[in-house]
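User: Quick sanity check before I run a bigger batch. Here is a single chain. Can you write out its predicted 3D structure?
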Amino acid sequence: MRLFAAAEAAAGRDEDQVDAGTLGGAIDVLSGRYGETMTKVLGASSFLLDGVAAYERDAELIDGQRLDVLPPFAGG
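Assistant: Done. Predicted structure follows.
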């Protein structure tokens, strides 16, 4: 999985791997791994599975699939 902006800052890295069967499971793993700041970031983030927007926590993750965590971006 790739972590961007505030998610990268919360994790201290721009990539990570999780073993989870669903998007919600991956969110839970990251929250547990990186704590309260990451939990807040994930609550405001958007997610892409292999480049396609994923909105449902029960979206299935397939081994080898790329998950991108996209927190809100500022700027213009």
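The mean pLDDT is 94.

User: Great, the batch can go ahead then.
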